[in-house]
## 1
Amino acid sequence: MTSTLLSTSEYLIVRGGSTLTGEVEISGSKNASLPILIATLLSEERSTILDAPYLLDIKNTIELLENMGVEIKREGNRIEVNPERITNCRASDENVRRMRASVLAMGPLLVRCGEAIVAMPGGCSIGLRPIDQHLKFFQSAGVDVNVKHGYIYLERKEKKSVNFTFDIITVTGTENALMFLSSVNKESVLNNIALEPEVMDLIEVLRKMGADIEIEGRKAIIRGREDLSGFIHKVIPDRIEAGTFMVGAYLTGGDITLKNVIKDHLTSIIEALREAGAVVEEKSVNEIRVYGSGPIKPLNIETREYPGFPTDMQAQFMVLLSLADGVSVIKENIFENRFQHVMELKRMGADISVKGNTAIIKGVRNLTGAEVFSTDLRASAALVIAGLVAEGETTVRDIYHLDRGYENFDKKLAKLGASVQRLPSL
Ligand code: EPU
């Protein structure tokens, strides 16, 4: 499926009152595709990625790699990468500003060039998001790290075996370290790693490239090699896109079947939905049916690292719980500022109060359409599904956030019966 990539100026008009019914095909995972695309740099051989969703973040990653001299051919969801020649070992300020995940280039660039220059990311709308753990790891691995004039200068001084423990669990930090160590011809250990399915998909790729990686709980034992090979890999389905449609189905009193899902990746989301009163059925190995017409039961949710409840589903569940029969509590433990959608939901009539990292949501009878602004990717999707059940019309602005991470979201919703219209700003 191809999508139209848009300018920042488009917006969506969502008319409330429709029920989501039918089948929806879930796209490949954004957060798995990004590190896998960047991992192609680890080898001089060609690689092919299948099922990569066509999104702004993927387009930006392709541009990041092309700026380094890598040749890329994309046809629909298939991306062929020829990283034989790297002419530039730098991720510019513009690359990093457009997409924070550009910091994932640090590890692979160090492997290919012995050095890397990567713009230091600033904070973003969901939190400060420091990368101290990435840098601490590189220092422990024999890399000189200097930050000046807004850039991180990294230079590899030695190739050594590493035994490193992350102070906190970080997804892209773990991915950077795994990519780097996969090219070190020695045995290394990483402790307190992230176990998100997207990290596991990257590990699958690194194994295909020739690295030997064992996982024991939150510990990774890596035996790398210098001559890593190219790979062909089909990325896992996007569990957050799936979760968003699952919430949409129950929220609207609908009945949808999701195709191309891995049920095991959705355990915490399924548990929360069932607790809220939804019916979730496994139709086949990779198909799930979600339906239910309420009443929506209140929940007590805390976001946690995988296999806990994902922070990337927090905003969507907040919409659901805004219409619950009682009071719910959501505690956000991953990002310190990921409640910006609360103000927008309040504009739609939700009754939510925030104290520190905890939101108290008192269920209301109905939401009403309003003009709302997307504050980040997941907030953007949450506002769209809120519009599906709100009385009247909801205008969701700044949907470039949505287009960073959801492939054809509005088209998929329309196919399920929603009234969603994309319009350019005047
Ligand atoms: N952190 C540090 N120091 C570090 C790294 C992280 O303090 O060096 C903190 C962060 O500030 C945050 C927590 O640790 O408070 C967890 O951050 P993590 O590094 O795990 O997040 P990330 O790798 O930057 C990825 C996803 C996010 C997702 C988080 C958490 C990608 C490209 N991004 O971010 O996805 O929310 O893990 O699961 O994989 C999204 O898709 O909308 C999105 C934001």
## 2
Amino acid sequence: MNPKLLFWVPAALRMALILGGVAVLGFLFGAIPALIVGFLAMLVLVFIQLGYLYQLSDWLDNPDSSRLPDGWGAWTNIFSRLYRLRREDEKNSAELTEWLARFRQAMHLLPDGVVIMDDVLFLEWCNPAAEQHLGLSNERDKGMRVTNLVRSPDFMDYIILGRYEQPLTISLRERKLIVHIIPFENRRQILVTHDATETERTEMMRRDFIANASHELRTPLTVIVGFLEIAAMEGLDEETRMSHLKLMGEQGHRMQHLIEDMLTLSRLESVDYPMRPERIDTVKLLSQVQRDARALSAGKHEITMDVDGPDMMGSFEELYSAFGNLASNAVRYTPAGGTIKLNWTAEREGARFTVEDTGIGINPEHISRLTERFYRVDKSRSRETQGTGLGLAIVKHVLLRHGCTLQIKSEAGKGSCFNVLVPKAALASKQAELLLN
Ligand code: ADP
């Protein structure tokens, strides 16, 4: 029905009722009393309306839907419409508050920094990651110019040039940050920061590894190619030819070792290469390690072994390669006549494997870097003895996978002692075996 009619018809009826009543009263009691009654009835009506107006104005001071009065006549409709409007409003604002809380929580958890600035780069808001990346404080720095807070010449240039299509990489507070300004709305800008320190480090390691590996492969390859060119020349006597072939064979083997070690390393580093632990007979494992060391030494060293410890849990193949590497290093870096001791002993916290030699030893400044790939103290000695520079890096990875740690003690000219500390968890016990089966 037409809302106009809905309002006016009942109001007109009410008036007509009063006027009708006044007319009847006039007919029965005369005009004067009827007019007085009519006047009083109108007065009551006016006061009722004023009462509702007052209630409405009072409600507007604190417009809570639960406080709305019921009303009478046209007021019923007005109040019920106001009630509906208010309820909707309250629902929307509750939803908005909830969304805002969720948004704030998401921004708190975001690993990337987000800074909201106005058009002239005054800080309006930033999340905790941005506080950390840029050294800002949401409370302290609000309303300050971001360029006064982030002191980096590259960042300043980026702002001055205003080429915001591309992100910028800056070094700030010992981190590598990728920062990007994105204008939004008409008069606001967002500054996004991403911490790329770790990515940059991995990228550098990858570049170094490729450079080192190529260099290591290029040297033997150059030798082989050189000899092949000489071999192509005529008039080479048999003896020279044979010695060249021997040298080429050695260089070929060197390349083979290098590639095998690189493949082992990459397999150990790969997340898709799970370890299948098994019970390892340590006497058998260490006997093999000693046998290999003796073969490498070819009688030039005294190699002793003392096994007095429990069996291990882990990968036989991997531990054989790690312990074997330590033993072969001892042989390779100990001049003829030296002694090498292999020891496996039980300890309170687990067990310990040690390889002790009386070899050339290592200066203290090198010790912390020995497990880096291709790190060698003496390059020529490593090469002479078929070293790839990857042995201790492999050892480190294998030990890491078994929860073991490597300790190196050494003194130049006196000898070295490589200790592998094996925790109880990596030792064979009834429970460990039951868990496996
Ligand atoms: P490499 O194949 O060159 O031996 P490793 O990673 O096994 O590579 O060892 C890294 C370096 O650590 C070696 O080049 C050598 O300088 C040093 N090193 C390792 N073991 C010993 C040892 N027992 N005595 C002296 N130096 C050692």
